[in-house]
């Protein structure tokens, strides 16, 4: 009688790294709170906090997005995901954020190529992701992205496609593409946590000192040097300083981000819901004088609630629409 030996093949299950979900949740909290305290900027403390948060909150999101986009290709599956997760939500929310202007002010303006309000990020991310394979072929991608960012700041680019922001913030996306897992492991070391906390504290102290001297438009990345009122040499120096400051604060923030699974790790996997929906909370809050503490508290609550399963279930059709009915069936490789 012959015996048959059966060899078990181990099944590898790739789990989500809670570190990145934690970072994304904390980043969206900063984004929502930053938008909610915008109307409180008459108070010096609120203006300093606004300036501080805006130096690195979107760079943080963009670096994480770049890192998680490293495997993007021009394949059919990726292209379909690009359309269903960015292009279609962009159209939905561009329309959704235009409708309140019709109700409140009696005018309706819709320009699909000129992003309104926070939809600029979807437009820019769409373009950044399309360019991903290009950056991965260059020998010095970060240097090229940095030069493009500084050079385009010298020109008034069209509002279409959010060109100033797309090019201005491009180095953060390319930085994310260039990062490797070992870079994040290095940031997780105990001494880096202490260094990160010190850098964040120093950054806040600096913001308290300089926020009144720096025009707000610098941290919004949407205007050229001339439009802000400086010559190109000065503007380039300021832009370079903001890029460096943003990168340093992003690294510091990631250094203090918990790597273990937390109560908000699951929420960090769905931050696009909070990003796209929180604008409606902001528009309502603008009609009330909440004050700084209440605005921050509302931001914490809104960022959290908008990432929860009930909200995701209710707005899945807008943020992550199922578009399989639009596409032809994928062909299996022969």
TrEMBL record:
GO terms for molecular function: acyltransferase activity, transferring groups other than amino-acyl groups. The chain crosses the membrane at residues 49-70, 82-103, 115-131, 161-179, 191-211, 237-256, 263-284, 290-308. InterPro entries: Acyl_transf_3_dom (IPR002656), Nod_factor_acetyltransferase (IPR052734). It holds the Pfam family Acyl_transf_3. Signal peptide: none annotated. The keyword Methyltransferase does not apply. Keywords: Membrane, Transferase, Transmembrane, Transmembrane helix. Residues 18-307 form the Acyltransferase domain. This is Fucose 4-O-acetylase-like acetyltransferase. It comes from Nonomuraea polychroma.
């Amino acid at each position: 009688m012959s015996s048959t030996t059966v060899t078990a093949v181990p099944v590898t299950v790739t789990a989500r790294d809670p570190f990145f979900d934690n970072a994304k949740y904390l980043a969206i909290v900063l984004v929502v709170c930053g938008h909610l305290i915008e109307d409180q900027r008459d108070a010096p403390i609120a203006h300093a906090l606004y300036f501080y948060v805006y130096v690195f909150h979107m760079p943080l999101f963009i670096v994480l997005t770049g890192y998680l986009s490293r495997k993007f290709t021009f394949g059919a599956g990726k292209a379909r995901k690009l359309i269903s997760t960015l292009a279609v939500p962009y159209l939905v929310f561009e329309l959704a954020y235009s409708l309140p202007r019709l109700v409140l002010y009696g005018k309706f303006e819709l320009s699909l190529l000129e992003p309104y309000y926070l939809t600029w990020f979807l437009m820019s991310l769409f373009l950044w992701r399309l360019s991903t394979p290009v950056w991965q072929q260059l020998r010095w991608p970060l240097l090229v992205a940095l030069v493009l960012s500084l050079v385009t700041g010298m020109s008034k680019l069209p509002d279409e496609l959010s060109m100033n922001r797309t090019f201005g913030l491009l180095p953060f996306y390319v930085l994310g593409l260039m990062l490797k897992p070992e870079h994040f492991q290095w940031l997780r070391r105990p001494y880096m946590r202490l260094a990160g906390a010190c850098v964040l504290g120093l950054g806040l102290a600096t913001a308290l000192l300089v926020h009144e001297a720096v025009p707000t438009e610098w941290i919004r990345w949407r205007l050229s040097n001339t439009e802000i009122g400086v010559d190109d040499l000065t503007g380039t120096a300021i832009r370079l300083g903001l890029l460096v400051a943003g990168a340093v604060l992003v690294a510091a923030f990631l250094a203090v981000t918990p790597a273990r699974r937390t109560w908000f790790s699951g929420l960090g996997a769905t931050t696009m819901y909070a990003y796209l929906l929180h604008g409606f909370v902001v528009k309502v809050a603008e009609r009330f004088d909440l004050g700084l503490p209440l605005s921050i508290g509302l931001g914490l609550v809104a960022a959290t609630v908008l990432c929860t399963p009930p909200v995701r279930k209710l707005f899945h059709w807008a943020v992550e629409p199922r578009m399989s009915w639009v596409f032809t069936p994928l062909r299996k490789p022969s």
